[in-house]
Amino acid sequence: MAAPLVALIPGTADACGGTFCDNTNVPMAVDQRGEDILFVQDGPEIEVHVRIQYEGEAEHFAWLVPLRAIPDISVGSDALFGQLGFASAPAWRTNESYACPDEDPGSGGGLTFVPEDDFAGASEPDVVIEETVGAFEVVVLQGGTVAGVMQFLADNDYEQDMAAAPILQEYLDEGFLFAAVKLTAAAEVADIHPLVFRMLGDEPCVPLRLTRIAAEPDMGVRAYFLGQHRWAPLNYHHVELNTLAFPWSEINGDNTSRAAYTEQLSLAVDEAGGRAFATDYAGSSDIVGTDGVYENYWDESAFIGVDPITAIALIDDQNLNRHPLIQPLLMQFIPPPDGLDAADFWNSIELYADQIDQGAWDSEAFAAALAERIIEPGLHAVDLLDAWPYLTRLVTTISPEEMTLDPIFIETPDLPEVSNFKTAEGLNLCGEQGSRYMVPWGENPVPVCLGEQQYQWPELLSQRPTRRIEKIAPMGPPQVIEDFTAEIVDDWTAHQVEAGCADPGGDEGGDGGEGGEAGADAGGEGEAGGASLNGRGAMAGCACRASEDSPLGVALGLLGLAFVGGATRRRGERS
To answer: In 302-427, which residue ranges form alpha helices assigned H by DSSP?
Structure first.
């Protein structure tokens, strides 16, 4: 009997990617909740990987992409986006410990892997590319008028929204082309996969102006960059989040911490005027795993000339049964009989040998589709990770009314690395004495004391989501637009006093004189490893006040987001 293929059951797409589609019988703009884009600048060329997510009927899917130049278009790797997200997502953790072991509940902290129209006088565009790419029919349109573009879309059964007309005019005036994408007649929603556009260009850009027709409020955008250095927004602001505003004491699970991070990001972006990015990660691309992206034992030629039962066994042998795009291929080439669950059919295909649709099976066509949609995109993805040593992940949330300017990005070799891991150390001080959290702040952590309400993060600290708002230049340090560090320090100091923490000049607090010699500077650095903010002595060695006869005593105060290289090797080189 063939090996089990239970992993073939797909997840539900949670967003509708692209520009136009509908989820009802009435055409409507797509409900778009997020975008995932990967940019690779390769000398004078740019490679853009776009992950498309959609829910609705396959025949109503349509997607319009503004492009700077005529592209080469290919299938992208969905598994690559999965690995990029897993490796670079913000992970803000709280480690809890207990001064009184009998009060330890035995649970850890949370982790974030945080219509009709008159087209009279229309001048139709030129069709410069018309091809099938994986599960998509793709045409690239150049020139013409807005009316002509929309007439072409209407004549070729693309859903559209008349509200897009003035936005399309903006792109046409700026010399953009349009790639119009829809599913082939035989394709289903499960067949949707990323697309790769490679073209001349040196200015990574996310076309949010057109996206606003379909976007929801506070839509998330994730932009990844592979290259030699860190990347940053050029015409949008950059924000640094205030780690003291994050509710470290309230984290109790992935969903809670993810929601808290997203809320703080949205508030920070709004504080910067609604158009800003934060850097989740900037550093080595070696953190990105390749499991499931490409394996060197994948071999499409092994499927040529075999029967469907053997093909199912080969899929398991090559560990392809967990790839997100294998199930759609099986639905096309080895479809389950009517009324039979797909997984049950494939898992026990020998029992249903007489019900196999032999007319649907074409071993050569299956091998070609396997290579085009899974093997070749995976190999290319691994080659990219090998060629480019640096990964940047930039994130924002943005609402339709703010999408009047497309964000452009630049490489910034002078900016430092950014870790996506931040950890606060929490210590429960027994009963009514409260708790103390050492919160990451620059190089050194700073203490935050909580009283009897030891799991409720102080409102005074939560009110400032942003530490800095910056304007990034291609070279040199960022230009600081707003720096809220002083206000954050004042709020922190006031809270520590109100919470009844130890006086820095007393025996419990350690050194922390007026010069702040034991404290950190604005970046959190300090010669003596103290816990001061901004070089101020106030509360430099703060601990939650313990009673005089407490065995914890004094010690409490001291605990604690240009392709110039080539591929040097291939992680998954095919044998």
So the answer is: 308-317, 326-333, 342-347, 363-370, 376-387
